[in-house]
Amino acid sequence: MKSTIRIAIGILWTGAFLASCSKVLDKAPLDSYTDESVWKDLKLAEAYANNIYNVLPTFTVDWGSSLNRSVVLSSACDEGFTKFGDGYTCGARNVLNKGLLSPDNAGSFDIWSKNYSQIQNANIFLSKIDNVPGDDAYRNRIKGEVTFLRAYAYFQLISDYGGVPLITQPFNLNSDFKATRNSFEEGVTFVSNELDKAAALLTSATAQRGRVSAPLALAIKSRLLLYAASPLWNPSNDPAKWTAASAAAKAVIDLPGFSLFTGNYADLFTSFNSELIGVHLSGYKGEWDPFTGLEMMCFPNGYHGWAAFAPTQNLVDAFGTADGKYITDPASGYNAQQPYVSRDPRFYAIIIYDGRPTGNPAFFSDRTTTAAQFYEGGYDSDQGFDAWNNSLTRYAFRKYMDTTFNFNATTQANKFWILARLGEIYLNYAEAEFYLGHESTARTYLDKVRQRAGIHTPLTETGTALETRLRNERQVELAFEGHRYYDVRRWKIAEVTENKPAGQVIITRNAATGVKTYQYKDIEARSFDKSKHYLMPIPRTEIKRTGLQQNPGYN
To answer: Minimal CA–CA distance to 404: which of 394, 395, 396, 413?
Structure first.
């Protein structure tokens, strides 16, 4: 069903463009660049294009606006928790978790205006770039980048809202701003075709540090088609959609130059390596400013971090034992009073738990140990240093953390957010092959990911048990990378996972013996309404302005 709407998208691109120029160009006064001059110079056109990169997720934290959703997504599903609830700029995740989401309160989770603003910028660029004089290869490269960025913006929109208007021409003051809301399927076809166009224009066959590449375009196509084949959008389980998802993933797997990272697993997320297909660079601003650094936001309070985003006990329990068994398996040997012994090797690289050496020298004279102390009365407890910043779950994220980062330093270079990596593509392929009935292939690619992590017991599960394993592997392998939020929705299991309380652990230590006791509790009740919460509400301001039909369940 299509409905006629009017979309008023701000065309305030000039200020953003000039800000981008200040980073890219070493030329005279920025206010000297006119619209006419931009489209006569490929370097100026590229500066304009660089601003559109802001549609990509990053670690950058913008006080006064919103925490980038790359990080906040973790605390809006069962893998994470943030104590920044109703205050600060990530309070929107609180209304999601409490089941209070409405067209008026989505806050930083509302990407509608942000993405359509960048789509407008991309449409302007694509309408002009073919007439800009200069080298064809140079022109095609930046044209390919913007084609990708517009496709990515639409991928985000259809993932959140379902069908959205597909606008491909720039609005101007004489436009009537009328459009139709396309279906989700039309959105998938459009984005898939645009990603193919981008890949054809981007001649580089290797990953580019901080820039879009052909492999990245194909990797996002793999994710797109996986989502489209999943139960939320494929209730009849049409095998043709799984076939398309499988083929898209295999096309990336077959690309030369990429391989699973086999070094120290934690280094996968802090160093440029063969597994990374695309990253978005995000350096820090260079001041003592907690709103610029992921380490500051996530490290335990005893290191003067904020522990603002922390793993839940739910996520910790998803990690199996060293031999690959679930902790619920009686044969696993798991002991809830010795919970961190003999766990999946990835657990130690992803989670900071009580007693785990962090590797961070702290750079503070008041810290005499680098081992985390989440037990009551420890350095990182609510009786420790900076007690108000303690982790309420008694865990912190190790993944993505630079453990050598000095909070007093002025800069940090080469920080990045992973847009796609080969490990994800293996999991995409395994899932698509499973639903096509090719269970042996699914197990093979799951085992590749597990063996890289250090789990060498081959999988033998079939049927529903193998489906459960597939989902568990994504939960563990891709934790804190922005996938879980969408995975539980596309699988249509959010009505189960997001209606469970978020968990914590309380650890007490006997001062005389040093023996610790672990008590597991709920920290936050959560609520998910399956009649509406699988999609985001379109902002009420947009509904009023355009007459756009709201997603089901939202008033």
So the answer is: 413
Task: Determine the pLDDT at residue 304.
Answer: 82
Q: Which residues contact 431 (CB under 8 A, 6 or more apart)?
A: 226, 245, 442, 470, 474
What's the CA gap between 25 and 75, in Å, rounded? Answer: 38
**Could you tell me which residues come within 8 angstroms of residue 447 by beta carbon, excluding any fewer than 6 positions away?**
458, 459
Q: Would you state the pLDDT for residue 35?
A: 78
In this structure, are residues 397 and 323 in contact, taking their beta carbons and an 8 Å threshold? no
Note the residue count of the chain: 555
Mean pLDDT split into 10-residue runs, the chain, 555 residues: 38 32 36 74 96 85 52 90 64 82 88 94 97 96 97 98 95 75 97 98 80 96 98 98 98 97 95 94 51 76 88 98 97 98 97 88 65 94 90 96 72 80 98 98 98 96 98 98 97 98 98 97 97 96 88 93
Do the beta carbons of residue 453 and residue 106 sit within 8 Å?
no
Nearest-angstrom CA–CA distance, 212 and 144: 8
CA distance 323 to 455: 6
Backbone dihedral region for residue 392 (phi beyond 0: left; psi -120 to 50: alpha; all else: beta): alpha
Contact 269, 423 (CB under 8 A): no
Nearest residue to 103 (alpha-carbon basis) of 525, 540, 477, 551: 540
Q: What is the pTM (predicted TM-score) of this model? A: 0.91
Q: What whole-number distance in Å separates Cα of residue 354 and Cα of residue 369?
A: 12
Q: Give the model's pLDDT for residue 402.
A: 84
What confidence score (pLDDT) does residue 308 get? 87
CA 118 to chain centre: 19
Rg value, the chain, Cα: 24
Q: Where are the strands (E) in 255-395, listed by range?
A: 276-281, 309-311, 351-352
DSSP notation for 94-134: HHHHTT---TT--GGG--HHHHHHHHHHHHHHHHHGGGS-S
User: Are 169 and 154 a contacting pair, CB within 8 Å?
Assistant: no
- Expressed in angstroms, the distance from the first to the final Cα of the chain is 19
Q: Residues 180, 2: contact at Cβ < 8 Å?
A: yes
**Hey, which residues does 418 pair with through a beta bridge?**
279
User: Does residue 34 come out as left (phi exceeding 0), alpha (psi in the -120 to 50 range) or beta?
Assistant: beta
Q: What is the three-class DSSP state of 518?
A: strand
Could you tell me the sign of the dihedral formed by the alpha carbons of 193, 162, 241, 214, in that order? positive
The alpha-helical segments, DSSP class H, found in 491-534 are 494-497
| Burial class for 456, CB neighbours closer than 10 Å (0-12, 13-18, 19+) | exposed
The answer to whether the beta carbons of residues 39 and 45 sit under 8 Å apart is yes
Q: What are phi and psi of 135, to 5 degrees?
A: -65, 130
